[in-house]
């Protein structure tokens, strides 16, 4: 058995590899392209997920593709499905860091810490706080209750925020996909933590924004295309919602002339949430080794993606 794995993680992976597994270590994408025709499994994403489909197309023997990314919308699901390739992702690897950022967004919005920082830059000592919102007693709607959504809910519970979750099926006491829109006006925070699929594109549009409280904030730590951005910009400029904390936008990076940079009450964190940690690569290596053992044993693998559902 041969596997294609990133040389950057050799120290973390090599000690845990079985003796009868041959590891081919790739240093760049060109090397990965040259090596992939001869392997049974591959971990490719350290070179960027958008390059993966072209490399996978060359993997004649490939049976399992691993990525430590949680979002897999850039991969060719049809390609993987047609060839029967198993895909596992990194769901849960960055959930704590991303959930921390979601909480950061709520606190920054409630206390308007962005304005506090700007006052500090100008060496101004105010007599009143720019933000007087309080998390305790507020209500949050979390759309998407996977690893990240559940971690956000746990953090918000500690701040006495009443949380309502949304899942596609309405499992575990959450609202189903056809129920949450009717409750938008009940919440102070609308938090997007759902995967990017064809079903979630422009999930929040003009109608949803109009249904939100005029003081409510939209928080997106999922993917930028879950929001109709022109509709959001219009709502921010009209002041019909309280504001938006956006870790993800589209396109990324935003060009300098993009209106989101200047939209009122819009806080941008440049997709830094998942990068705000030091433990992800080590955890990803441990997950890969765990899944390698499961794959060889024919037992269930962790984070196996349903290619039809898209997550």
Number of strands: 11
CATH architecture label of the largest domain: 3-Layer(aba) Sandwich
C-alpha termini separation: 27 Å
CATH topology name of the largest domain:
Rossmann fold
Mean pLDDT: 96
The secondary structure category is alpha/beta
Largest sheet: 6 strands, parallel
Number of helices: 10
How many distinct domains? 2
Strand content: 5-15%
Spans of at least 5 consecutive residues whose pLDDT stays below 50 are: none
Description of the structure:
By secondary structure, the chain is of the alpha/beta class. The protein folds into two domains: 2-93 and 277-297, NAD(P)-binding Rossmann-like Domain (Rossmann fold), CATH 3.40.50.720; 95-275, NAD(P)-binding Rossmann-like Domain (Rossmann fold). The mean pLDDT is 96. Helix 5 packs across helix 7 (147-158). The protein has ten helices and eleven strands. The strands form two sheets. Strands 7-6-8-9-10-11 form a six-stranded parallel sheet, covered by helices on one side. The protein has a five-stranded parallel sheet with strand order 2-1-3-4-5. Helix content is 31%, strand content 14%.
In short:
With 311 residues, the protein is an alpha/beta fold. It has two domains: 2-93 and 277-297, NAD(P)-binding Rossmann-like Domain (Rossmann fold, 3-Layer(aba) Sandwich), CATH 3.40.50.720; 95-275, Rossmann fold, CATH 3.40.50.720. Helices cover 31% and strands 14% of the residues.
